[in-house]
Amino acid sequence: MRTGVYYKTKRATINLLIHLFLITVAVTCLFPLLWMVGSSLKTQQTIFSDTSLIPKQMHWQNYYLAWKEGGFGRYFINSIFYTVSVVFGIVIISSLAAYAFSRFKFPGRNLIFYTFMAAMMIPIPGSFVALFVLLNKLHLRNTRVGYILCMIGVGLSTSIFLLKTFFDKTPRELEDAARIDGCSKVGIWWHVALPLAKPVLAVVVVFNALNVWNEYILALIIFDSRHLMPLQVALTTFQGEFITQYPLLMAGLTIAAMPIILVYLLMQKYIIKGVTAGAVVG
Amino acid sequence: MLKSKILILSMVYGLWSMVCLVGCTPRQTNKSQTTITVWHWMTDREPAFLELAKRYEAKTGVKVNFDLYAPSDAYTQKVRAAAQGSNLPDLFGILGEKRDFASFIKAGHIADLTEQMNEGNGRWKNMFFGKALDVNAFAEGNSYGIKPGIYGVPIDIMTIQMVYNQDLFKQLGLNPEQPPQTWEEFLNIGKKIKDAGIHGMVSGWGELWMMDCFANNYAFNIMGKDKVIATIKGKVAYTDPDWIKVLSLFKQMQEAGVLYNGVVIMVNKTAEQLFANEKAVFAFNGSWCVNVYKGMNPDLKYAAMLPPKVSNKYPMVIWGGAGSSFMVNNKSAHKEEVIKFLNWFTEKEQQAYLAEATKNLPANKESLANIPSILAQFADDMEATTHPSTWGVSEFPAVIEAFDKGIQSIIIGEKTPEEVARKVQKIKERELAKKHQ
Amino acid sequence: MRIKSTLENYLFVLPAVTIFLVFYILPFFSVFQLSLYEWDGVLPNKVFVGLANFKEIISQDPDWWRSMLNASWVTLIALTFQNALAFLLACACDREMRLKNFYRVIFFIPPVLSEVVVGLVWQRILDGNYGLLNAWLMKLGFPQLVHSWLSDPRTALNCVALVHSWKGFGWGFLIFLAGLQTIPRELYEAARVDGASAWNMFRRITIPLMIPVTILVVILTILGTMQSFVLIISLVGGELAGHTSVPVLRILASMRGSSRFGYACAQGISFGLILVVISFIQYRFSKRARQV
Question: Chain B residue closest to C39 (CA)?
Fold first, then answer.
């Protein structure tokens, strides 16, 4: 008969192994971040010859230089504007559509949904030029609106797919209750479905925020005026034709990574909170 | 609680968007002031360009906007998209091969500058090194179907050749003033390199075109220009023993240990960084490297050399000519102003400034005075140069790709030179057949 | 009344459909149209060739199929190694334990990092001459394992797959974790009261309830990995004589290297079609699995 001690030590060993596992993976994830920050504090001469992770002499002024030389102020704000607009747009538009695909019946529902799915699966590398020509015809080239609409288009399919999958497996009791209480369709969507979908919405936010924040080819092609460009374009300033100013580039990349990490930190709370158990289990 | 937070944030955001969207209509251009827009990819020269733009505006009142789009791949896409949407700027460069240049001309995007160049007994034309202009010109009887003339203006020149680390030479017991002159000498150094436990030649051979350049240099040395051109025209096969000899050179280099381990996955930037940090004895790079090495290691002791000859029958030829060039948009609203600016931009004083500020060779013959001595070594070999854009014919891209990838296979020991030659010839015949359909 | 209700339904999907039509369908048709021409992207005249480009892809382009094979291999590794890792990590983090939040943040750092940084760092580690991995192997006493990881054609692709998995597992981790969180705790409580072992709980409760999420992750992994290419450029500089070719790199080569814009469009469309077929087969398969 196995004693409590046996179980306790077994438990402790398993816990230890699990922690070792987690820590090993965590180290491999942390290493590049530290390396990036460490490199940003070195100089152009020492960046490849000095192999230490954290340099002895830390050149914090690289961050100031990167900010100034890259003209980060304006581009930073632009990127934030585009990211917020696109994410906001996608959240509203895709949740409306996903909810409809999941809950309503209307002619053409399946056809339209499958077309969205197909679109998600057919990437068009090189469609940038086609988008550019299109925007030109619509007189939306070199405008913020044009870029935002394009980016919303790019992220719609996957977001709708994620949300519909979630809505499909969410029980309808709460919504039925709301309908009986006389709530309109939009009301149900806003008051019941969306709050329930917080975890998935958080994933959608992070996913699209990351995509828009890191995007730069489309922005480069669509925008002619420098004051409309997002941050990623500013970063290319450091990747010269012949000379890459590595320390400044690393400093720039570190600065650029901060907001996204922030978004993730904020959103991961919602992903973790999840559905409150007990609300719908009958 | 959360809802009201969201509500407030949304209102702030909404107000801000309206301000942005409304307040950001394209600025009304001052009609009385001409503005010239230039698109370029040369990040390293942006400060120098901006300074020159300032000087021009002070002199003539014409504003010149230099817009930078980097890296060069992204720049190419932007220019192509703009060509389709008809919003090319007044002045821009075309990255790519002569065929692409020809296409742009045929599409009506590029102005013919022959007349302006020849004005006043060729005053503008004679400012430049002949080779630099040749890259931007189309000659009589060219295979692209373009009316002969000059369609672009070079703003600097470059050569692509070899450099060697003089300190490492001393370490190997070699004379730092005497680089290897023949192929055998070169390969023999490989053994010394292996014994000393250091590394040989670096170059951006992951990027294919540099490898192509190296192979081409030796093709000229082994069989002479005429035979190379004949091969491109399809009159000589790639299975010819001379070509197999060219391909074998790579095998010999790999076996002699004179190549850096992993040179086939190297991008040029990595190669530059390795040579600058004294991890390689040789490098195959262009004259722009002077500026790069100085930035990473100002104390580096190195010198330029021509690739060591294999044969004495024909001269060793390296690639050189115009580094970067600008073309004038044929549909520009102020063509004359643009051409005037370009003229000023390439004059002796401006070119001297550019050369000094960016440590690149000027295209203007008279501006060579103040360049650093190592750069002068590159300029000295200008006479021994050629450039694919001056041959009047282009090889099929599929053939070039097979050739270059074949060399990579030889270096990593997967294929023999004969196998590669056969494959390349097969693709060449396929392309020729397609063309004649 | 019925009409009003139906109209309301359409209104829900209207914004999505409009944007989709304009910004996806229209460019798609223009790309499809261009794939029927031989064009270099600049010349004023295009040459109509019908389906010749597609025929060429099928019969005369071994490089293309090789790139598909390479991409499939990387995707396979991603599906198994990367997702298994993500799943295990999510399970490990699902419990009540200290440092939970810490791990959740750390594991998401790789997806956030730009591909430039990832490429540079892993080059540092895997480099054949001065890499950290080789240095550690030497120190730990395994000099025979020292290898030119990135420039040896036999290992190059696997290194790419490894780095790719490293960069991507954060997403799987996130989605798996969200899925695990939606399993009501009461189910586990009830099972424990009934005397079920941890393994049984895992098998009977966790796995069945996680199937839809897993399918989601699989589809997203396939789509994401098949399309990746920036990492390859930053790790091995390009196609390494075909050993690390992937479809997007081939398309870019057609567009820029050979200036065959029409052909590149045809390649893009073929690529998309293949992905659609794979994903739909998978979706059907998953529907059946869910009904089990």
Answer: B103
